[in-house]
User: Which sequence fits this backbone?
């Protein structure tokens, strides 16, 4: 006999009756919370952690928060169910071992840079990037490293606006030069006519 558990009334999850696989209230609450956290995400990063101290976890979490992200330790099975619930692919190969999940709500590039910079500056083997989910695409660790080297969304927008502004600025300069020349020419004609009249 199976017991049905509804999370967000989308798709039921079935657990075996008899205690084995029976969800506890804490697991149900955790699943609902993870589902809520994933709903507004731009990207999800999967990292393996081994031997991180409480102080180190606090430091990296603070940096991730500054980058508009959230770092969370959760059970792999619950995180897998939460990914399914919000319609994201489930990378089974990344959901093994002790994982910490980083959810990006802002620019994923900034969060990727924050993670890779932390690993480089601390030279720590305690945190290892396994991959990421970005716009329904699965990225490997190499792809995340490449993502971290890209300019942030704000920098890209500034570059695009700069390239769009340059031709307009040139046109304004040319047009104002022509108008200045016309004004100078008309001024000289007026002075010449004044001399002729005098």
Assistant:
């Amino acid at each position: 006999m199976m017991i049905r558990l509804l999370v967000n009334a989308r798709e039921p999850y079935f657990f075996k009756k008899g205690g084995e696989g029976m969800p506890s209230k804490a697991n149900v609450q955790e699943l609902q919370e993870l589902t809520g956290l994933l709903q507004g995400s731009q990207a999800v990063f999967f990292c393996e952690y081994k031997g991180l101290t409480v102080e180190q976890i606090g430091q990296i979490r603070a940096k991730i928060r500054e980058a508009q992200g959230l770092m969370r330790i959760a059970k792999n099975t619950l995180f897998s169910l939460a990914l399914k619930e919000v319609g994201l692919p489930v990378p089974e190969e990344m959901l093994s071992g002790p994982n910490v999940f980083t959810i990006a709500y802002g620019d994923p590039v900034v969060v990727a840079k924050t993670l890779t910079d932390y690993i480089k500056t601390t030279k720590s083997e305690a945190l290892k990037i396994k991959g990421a989910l970005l716009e329904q695409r699965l990225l490997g660790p190499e792809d995340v490293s490449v993502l971290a080297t890209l300019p942030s969304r704000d920098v890209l927008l500034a570059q695009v606006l700069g390239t769009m502004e340059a031709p307009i600025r040139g046109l304004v300069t040319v047009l104002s030069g022509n108008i200045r020349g016309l004004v100078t020419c008309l001024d000289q004609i007026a002075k010449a006519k004044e001399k002729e009249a005098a």
